[in-house]
């Protein structure tokens, strides 16, 4: 393996692990800064795209868009790390989403929802598609470019969260 490819693989792996930790904190712990602030509730919805009227349709549309958006990097990184096979990447995104939904239910950390599973998987599929589009545009540099961009965005995200936590104390 060439040194450049090895460095690139290490970079994408590190950025992906940080992304997974942030995703776990977002989905399971709702960005709580202490254990007592983690919401404890258990719910399950097995009817796709069923929305209660109490929360309102705007809430549900935003929820769908957020679920798609937060899983786009998963599709990209699974594709980059596991052999450029979109089907495998999408299956891994579906498995990751299913794990999050099951863990939410088991530990009473939120509502498990089939819609979340579907939209997360869709986000992963879009991420796999982004990988192939960037591959055509940047001819072999897509992993490095997105890894650096991902690292920068993660640092900004963590910085903003730190600022919010400090300012709310």
Short description:
The chain has 169 residues and is mostly helical.
Task: Explain what you see.
- There is one protein chain.
- This protein is mainly alpha-helical.
- The protein has one domain.
- It has helices at residues 3-29, 57-81, 86-106, 114-138, 142-167; strands at residues 41-45, 109-113.
- A two-stranded parallel sheet has the order 1-2.
- It is globular and about 50 Å long.
- The mean pLDDT is 85.
Instruction: Give start-end ranges of low-pLDDT stretches.
Output: none
C-alpha end-to-end distance: 49 Å
Strands of the largest sheet, in order across it? 1-2
Rg over C-alpha atoms, rounded to the nearest angstrom: 17 Å
> Structural class given helices, strands, pairing?
mainly alpha
Shape: globular
Query: What average pLDDT do the residues reach?
Result: 85
Order of helices and strands: HEHHEHH
Helix content: over 70%
Q: What's the tally of helices?
A: 5
Task: Let me know the number of strands.
Answer: 2
Number of domains: 1
**Proportion of strand residues:** 5-15%
| Sheet with the most strands, sense and barrel status | 2 strands, parallel
